Amino acid sequence: MEGTIIATPMGRPQRDNQPLLLLTITDISERKRAEERRLQLERQMQQTQKLESLGVLAGGIAHDFNNLLTIILGNTSLALDDLPPLSPAGESLLTIEKTSLRAAELCRQILAYSGKGRFVIDDIRLGNLVGDMFSLLQSSISKKATLNLNLKEPLPPLHGDPGQIRQVIMNLVTNASEAIGDRGGVITISTGLMQCSREYLCEPYLYENLAEGLYVWFEVSDTGTGMDQETQRRIFEPFFTTKFTGRGLGLSAVLGIVRGHKGALKVYSKPGKGTTVKVLFPALAEGKFSAEQGAAPKAGTWNWKGAGTILLVDDEESVRTLGTRMLERIGFKVLVAADGQEALDIYRKRRDEIALILLDLTMPQMDGEATLHELRRIDAKVRVAISSGYTEAEIAPQFAGKPLFGFLQKPYTLNALTQCLRDAMGDGEIPTEP
């Protein structure tokens, strides 16, 4: 019990002329616990606001940056398509394409911090995923660190993006290695399964009303320097780092990925005693595995040719110019519109010949969502594919109940555009000019 003692002299003395004291004891234990809970909620709210702020910033970066990368990648794809197979320029163009895709991946990593990164959903066996990464992890840690595995099998799968989960594991193992440094030590990766109560799930970092139930987990523990309470409170803040050359984005991305997978994260650490980071994901019940897999190119996609007319709507002139060249290369005739209103005017006049509308999401005056609404007032069966620098997961809530025929993530290559249009066309009849 914690409390305060107050001694108050009484007015009437005793027979021996000694004053009486009135002692009052107040138990403030519950008050202190309530204050600590309030402070914890305030810290969680501040962290949530930081995540949301960076999410808004990341979305803006994604839109503008991916438009630029679309021009680079698109023109590179067209140049590669024009070159003879043994052209000496081919290697240089492939390097440009590869580097541009790496730049796009960096943008997606920034989006991962906000929990809105685009996921390629699959059913993941944690043990298999960690085992496949073992050699890569060993080569990534300090030569004085020993990597041990403690994998419990069999475990039910989790539902998520294997690439994102690998990024979480790699970041945590890399941090553990840096905590060990040149002194030598042990890093252990463990997996397991546990039934999580609501009380247990209230404790993880950045609690967001997670559902109680069965969770698969992995943890990365090290025998490094450990962290004090102040450092632990800040490790997931954007750009906070204890390393001289660090950027402070690794653990921020980890937190965003875990949040995006509806998972939980716990940190246990003491100075001089090492650190353990435990990550929990909702377990997928056996027999309910998703058939949805990562998008793999369909056989024959790159030889596919289109027919009919595409209406390309984008407020960026350079994207319209490039898109026209790419669509014509695939075999389409192209109409272009610089904004939503112009797209509506064109569609009213030429709807019978337009096979599909490739519609940019972010435009001034009338954006893609409003344009789609008006297009469907003209024709409820209009074929529309959305193109955006934002991620598919991020725009999905805007189009709930409004089925689309496709989504094209910027930046995109000629092959990605071809596959999107092939999927969007399906087996339906393609309009042709009368």
From TrEMBL:
Keywords of this entry: Phosphoprotein
Gene3D superfamilies on file: 1.10.287.130, 3.40.50.2300, Histidine kinase-like ATPase, C-terminal domain
InterPro entries, sorted: CheY-like_superfamily, HATPase_C_sf, HATPase_dom, His_kinase_dom, HisK_dim/P_dom, HisK_dim/P_sf, Sig_transdc_His_kin-like_C, Sig_transdc_resp-reg_receiver
SUPFAM superfamilies membership: ATPase domain of HSP90 chaperone/DNA topoisomerase II/histidine kinase (SSF55874), CheY-like (SSF52172), Homodimeric domain of signal transducing histidine kinase (SSF47384)
The organism's place on the tree of life at top rank: Bacteria
Stretches assigned to the Response regulatory domain: 309-425
Residue numbers carrying 4-aspartylphosphate: 360
EC nos: 2.7.13.3
Name used for this protein in its record: histidine kinase
Organism: Candidatus Competibacter phosphatis
Lineage: Bacteria, Pseudomonadati, Pseudomonadota, Gammaproteobacteria, Candidatus Competibacteraceae
